[in-house]
């Protein structure tokens, strides 16, 4: 039973992703997915939070388009959920990006929409600066941390903790995204005691409220040696009894299930035997557009591996 809990489309993340949402869903069905979580990027509140490709031709216009686009996404996702209900379970969510504390109430309001099943809590910014877009922006974030990568990591995990304690997201996305543009992405973060203290604190809090941590294969397609999270963080998460979900964080058809075999190898090497997805009650129980409490479902990795023969 293959699935992804984290995905994006070019239709609703133009410039950032590719392909129409329906085409992505049809492709996921064709390679054996039984569940797909739709998690388009949430609207942002200020021009300063836009990515470079969103600044052209006019940043104010781009910002004004985000909220209507999000509403259009929710409408289309509900339509597709009904259309393909006999072939795949579609979960409707969004990626809640914590740019700064002011986003807390806004993310909660988006999560309260009756069509939304869940959201992913993630952090792509440190001190208001994107840390995963390109090297130039990462350098700016590093400068904001007085040029110390250790300090930047500390600030990243502190701001992540703000997000976690405020939102308690059902799924925590790419928990160690900070290493993507790092000078040494394979660094053993335990050699930085203050950073490691923050990581373990965050993991304990996620475990406390029973959140899921995604094993996200996008790190592999971006050139990192290990998925998110890296091995030492994954080992600590398992040591305290944490549970993983599974995602490709795809941004178009060509990235659906990319590196899933490597993701499975990685988890099995850690001793993981199952990952967790979520389920909605049968459609007959719900009125159109109504939300409900999702149920978790354990998926053995052996079953997962057997059901996506075309995954890369």
From TrEMBL:
GO molecular function, one term: histidinol-phosphatase activity
Record keyword Phosphoprotein present: no
Alphabetized InterPro entries for the sequence: Histidinol_P_phosphatase_HisJ, PHP_dom, Pol/histidinol_Pase-like
CDD domains, alphabetized: PHP_HisPPase_Hisj_like
Pfam families, A to Z: PHP
Enzyme class: hydrolase
Catalytic activity: L-histidinol phosphate + H2O = L-histidinol + phosphate
Keyword Hydrolase: yes
Domain of life: Eukaryota
GO cellular component: cytoplasm
Any single biological process term in GO: L-histidine biosynthetic process
Residue ranges constituting the PHP domain according to the UniProt record: 5-218
EC number(s) given by UniProt: 3.1.3.15
Keywords, in A-Z order: Amino-acid biosynthesis, Histidine biosynthesis, Hydrolase
Pathway(s): Amino-acid biosynthesis; L-histidine biosynthesis; L-histidine from 5-phospho-alpha-D-ribose 1-diphosphate: step 8/9
Family as reported in the entry's similarity comment: Belongs to the PHP hydrolase family. HisK subfamily.
Name of the protein in its database record: Histidinol-phosphatase
Lineage: Eukaryota, Fungi, Dikarya, Ascomycota, Pezizomycotina
């Amino acid at each position: 039973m293959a699935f992804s809990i984290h995905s994006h489309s070019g239709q609703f993340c133009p410039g950032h992703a590719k392909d129409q949402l329906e085409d992505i869903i049809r492709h996921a069905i064709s390679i054996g997915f039984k569940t797909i979580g739709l998690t388009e990027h949430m609207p942002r509140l200020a021009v300063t939070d836009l990515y470079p490709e969103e600044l052209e031709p006019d940043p104010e216009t781009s910002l004004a388009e985000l909220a209507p686009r999000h509403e259009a996404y929710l409408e289309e996702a509900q339509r597709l959920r009904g259309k393909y209900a006999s072939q795949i379970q579609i979960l409707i969510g969004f990626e809640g990006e914590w740019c700064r504390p002011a986003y807390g109430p806004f993310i909660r309001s988006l999560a309260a929409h009756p069509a939304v099943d869940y959201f992913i809590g993630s952090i792509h910014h440190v001190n208001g600066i994107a840390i995963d877009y390109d090297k130039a922006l990462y350098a700016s974030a590093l400068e904001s941390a007085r040029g110390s990568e250790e300090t930047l990591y500390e600030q990243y995990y502190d701001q992540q903790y703000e997000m976690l304690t405020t939102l308690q997201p059902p799924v925590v996305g790419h928990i160690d995204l900070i290493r993507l543009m790092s000078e040494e992405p394979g660094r053993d973060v335990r050699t930085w005691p203050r950073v490691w203290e923050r990581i373990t604190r965050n993991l304990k809090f996620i475990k406390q409220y029973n959140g899921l941590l995604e094993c996200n294969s996008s790190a592999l397609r971006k050139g990192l040696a290990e998925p998110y999270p890296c091995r030492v963080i994954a080992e600590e998460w398992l040591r305290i009894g944490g549970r993983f979900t599974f995602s490709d964080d795809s941004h178009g058809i060509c990235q659906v299930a990319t590196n899933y075999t490597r993701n499975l190898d990685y988890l099995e090497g850690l001793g993981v035997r199952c990952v967790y997805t979520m389920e909605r009650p049968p459609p007959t129980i719900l009125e159109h557009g109504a939300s409900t409490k999702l149920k978790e479902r354990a998926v053995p990795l052996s079953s997962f591996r057997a059901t996506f023969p075309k995954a890369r």
